[in-house]
Amino acid sequence: MDAIREKKKAWRRALVELFRLIPREDRRRLDAALSERALEYARRSGAGLLMGFAPMADEPDLSACFRLWLKGGGQLALPVWLGGDKMIVRRIDNLDSQLRPGRGGILEPLDTLPEAAPETVELVIAPGRAFSENCARMGRGSGCYDALFRAHEVAKFGVAYDFQVFPEIPTYFGDVRLDAVVTPTRTVKHE
Questions:
Q1: 0.85 exceeded by the pTM?
Q2: In Å, how far from its chain's centre is CA 115?
Q3: Element (H, E) at 14
Q4: Confidence of residue 144 (pLDDT cuts 50, 70, 90)
């Protein structure tokens, strides 16, 4: 277990460095392509309530996807990280006025917004540090997405730049596989 933990730490450090190498204009282009493909995947799912995320500096920015989702009549919820593997989910309808910096500087919904029961979420878009060709996901290490996925059966896919998808990544027994991983150029499905 400690050997896997150390491998995951090394992978996370390396991927943070890779993100720093991408010029801002290239990030915008990648985010636009990824938003388009993620929106297409979400629409095909038939979901009504989508759980997204507000990106950290080293995660893809899907703001365009979420704005179009809302404009098209979809419902959106974002997580509020409570520490450890705990999170709650709040419904939002405006990315520009309903977010504030929370724990670790991560943007999250205002406390006054209604909570969404996790079982009402129909589709989750999960960020991650790395993904595998068989849809394993390596997050930041808190385990909050894995805890959510273990507690509630929900359709889920990851979003990543192509360099974040590997043949294999270090995983624990309790890591939950996603249904798919969407990149700016392809969709990898868990068979």
A1: yes
A2: 19
A3: helix 2-20
A4: confident
Structure tokens at 185: 């150029």
Q: Which DSSP string corresponds to 125-181?
A: EE--SEEETT--EE-SSS-HHHHHHHHS--EEEEE--GGGEES-----TTPPPPSEE
Please state, as a whole number, how many other Cβ atoms lie within 10 Å of the Cβ of residue 142: 16
The mean pLDDT value for 74-89 works out to: 91
**Contact partners, residue 77, CB within 8 Å, separation at least 6:** 49, 50, 51, 52, 89, 90, 91, 92, 109, 116, 121
Residue type, 54: A
Q: How far apart are CA 87 and CA 82, in angstroms?
A: 5
Element (H, E) at 189: strand 187-189
